[in-house]
Amino acid sequence: MAYVTHATTKGGRDGRAVLDDGKLALAMALPKDLGGSGEGHNPEQLFALGWSSCFGQAVLLLAKKHGLDGQAARVGCKVELDKDETSFALKAELTLSIPGADKTKLQALIEEAHQICPYSKATRNNIPVTLTVA
Questions:
Q1: What is the CATH number of the domain that holds 35?
Q2: What average pLDDT does the segment 114-134 reach?
Q3: In 10 A of CB 82, how many CB atoms?
Q4: Sign of torsion, CA 118 5 23 7?
Q5: Which residues of 90-106 are buried (b: 16+ CB within 10 A; e: fewer)?
Q6: What is the residue range of 56's domain?
Q7: Which of 27, 37, 47, 113 is the most buried (most CB within 10 A)?
């Protein structure tokens, strides 16, 4: 095992989420789009933050191999919560941009980073993910 963390939430989407080490505690709230107050954070936001950061590290690790400046990279992660007749489901879009970079090199980098990022591995074949270079 390389690392372990643990969080506890009381009150679900309108509760409070706390890391067990006490270093982060967040008020959670259902988004206004779903009829909530929007006066807190939601799981989709936290997932997008975590995935963009993790994916950014994969980009940093691989950028030099692709002849790109990983320090200049900007990684975006859009997470959508969709609803069908019976339940909810996620989908995501990862975006990668490096000012002045060749789009072909960027495409190769985003595809390789998607293969090694732990969030990408965890979601592979579970949710639709779009890779976009800008």
A1: 2.20.25.10
A2: 97
A3: 11
A4: positive
A5: bebebbbebeebeeeeb
A6: 43-133
A7: 113
